[in-house]
Amino acid sequence: MIETDVVVVGAGPVGLAASIELGMRGARVVLVERNSRVGVAPRAKTTNVRTRTHLRRWGIAEHLAHEAPFGIDYPNNMVFVTRIGPGGHELARFGNAFNASPERDPRYPEHGQWVPQYKLEKVLLEKVRELPNVEVRFDTSFVSAQEDDGGVTVTLRSDSDFQIRSAYMIGADGGRSAVRNLIGAKLEGQHGLSHHYNIIFRAPGMSTQHDFGPAAIYWQIGKDGFSAVGPMDVDDLWFFSPGGAKPGTSLSDDQARSLIRERTGVDLPFEILSADSWTASELLADKYAEGRIFLAGDACHLHPPAGGYGMNMGVGDGVDLGWKIAAVLHGWGGDALLASYEAERRPVHRAVMDEAMANYAIYVAPPPPEIEHDGPVGEAIRAKVGGGIQASKAREFRTLGTVLGLCYADSPVLVEEGTAIPERDSQNYVPTARPGCLAPHAWLADGRSLYDLFGDGFTLLADTRADPADVATAVTQASQAGVPLKVIQLDDVDVAALYGARLALVRPDQHVAWRGDRWAAVLDVVTGRKAVARGA
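User: That's the sequence. What structure does it adopt?
Assistant: Structure tokens below.
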């Protein structure tokens, strides 16, 4: 029987992220995927600032930048029009959606990026294959698993059934997760909110058929209803997503071509590469784990794509599980650290889902058919619809307050201060070093990011005015406990001003675990070796 530390089921972005996080921390991983991961119909196209910051930590952010189909400077504009083709009118626009412009920003080290999901998967898979302790098995299906006190026996199927013995298993196997069914987790919420087609097509000259300038998505609101269309890759590859699909159905090539012509007003020799359907739902699992088996990504949370959160949130799941399982495998993480996965991530998922649903709820209602007419009546309708879009849809494309501003709370591995979590603005991010929140960022005088200096384990940020004896005590206690700890003390970062204390302890995932002006014996709590009641 094959033996390993962790079996990861599902090699999408979530499973790849978990495998990288585990593999870079020395864990042995077997990553299995029932498909060969080929295809041209990705749902996700936005890699947000937080996900790209993880890629920076893994040393591959620049690799993803090079995969940008139209260059990293391509404007990530969202343009609302009656139709993209001849006779179409612009209604509203939002520039630099999802903070994708490459200009340096003091709040984060990496900007967002519009890039097809298969490009991201390519970069992640290349990184996985660089890790000698991670084995990837495509065309391998999950069959079952049996847990006992010592580990998990996983049965898989390739040419025939075989078994792997592991300490832990992660189910990153999507919305129809077999691992979720195995542990008896139930999805709660609303299924089938709406149904959409996802058509990938090639259309030479498509970009010359309009005068709306470059954009990531052209949102069409015309007499035929609501749809989205945009460039996806080089060689004139585009996507088209109209609503009104019948659940579980796909379109013939002729039907897809006809629908594109009808909605866009463009008549070109469209080559249909795929035409399938997808369903928007709002579902959250009632539990994320059973013993040594965990769920991540769409296996435990599903929501409409309004705001571009889903895939990115799943990558965050993989990171969180990865460093925590690795810590336990290495002996310095305790049981409470694994328990903190659901305690921390589930409330964040709920908040993000609420945000996505708020965006989804204000999708534009079908306008009067005269919206496409020339003349005063059409102009008046377009002005009214455009004004409503500009006033209501910014929340969907300005998401930094949600992407970076959500904080963990009531966690067994945080040293709470007894203060309330700062009120969050979904669009605007205001850094705070309250335990559970993302570590405030800064650029150093030499051009590096403060994050670049953080260690693989915990990092103690020390103000130049911190007591050296406190720093020495922290180092000694970490050494005695076997906890990896790196101390950072810089002249060009005012830690006390940035973090609100002279000392701040930052976790491997770049969230603050504790802060204070004098060192306290907190390592047993933040590593999960000392149980602390939530909310205490």
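The mean pLDDT is 94.
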